[in-house]
Amino acid sequence: QDVAALEYRAPQLAAASLAFAFPAPPAGARLLDVACGTGLVARELHRRGFRCLDGVDGSAGMLERARSTGLYRQLRPCVLGREPLPAPAEHYDAVTVVGALGEGQVPSAAVPELLRVTKPGGFLCLTTRSNPSNLRYKAELEAALEGLERQGAWRKVLAQEVERWERATSEEESTQGTGYISGVVYIYRKCPVPPLEEG
């Protein structure tokens, strides 16, 4: 109900961006939805052809709701930042973290753990808000993302700022008095990126 009232668009925006970047038909691609919540992102990914979805979340209640969607192959408890992801290295073709990269949620220091479970050439789709109370976190997050890019761990495919991310809950948080806050979708591709196949 809250996300509907807030016109929360991150799940649609993230799924559309990932589907756009994804080179192969997504049906067979293994995807991990981190901080999956009630399954909002899974719903959007499913609509775009992703079928092999696993999810993790720190809340048992959220996992229960996610399970009731029938969209996930596997759901496990995990509080990213406090514990490693329950997955082997280089296991997933794509990893999403939508709506959990923010002040008081997943620390930016946990980003390398997302990379660990992603296959070389796999995609990572991350989102964060650009509202005033999240700007310090956003700057930290972007420093972590850029640091990993400088190290050659991944390559940026997309960073898309979105004006009307969701409704603001206060005047202070509103972007230039629009009544909305803005946000950003990032897509990265883990290195080494496999060469294009001949033919």
From TrEMBL:
Keywords: Methyltransferase, Transferase. The keyword Lipid biosynthesis does not apply. GO terms for biological process: methylation. The keyword Chloroplast does not apply. One of its GO terms (molecular function) is methyltransferase activity. Pfam families: Methyltransf_11. Transmembrane segments: none annotated. CDD domains: AdoMet_MTases (cd02440). SUPFAM superfamilies: S-adenosyl-L-methionine-dependent methyltransferases (SSF53335). Residues 32-125 form the Methyltransferase type domain. This is Methyltransferase-like protein 27. It comes from Eudyptula minor (Little blue penguin).
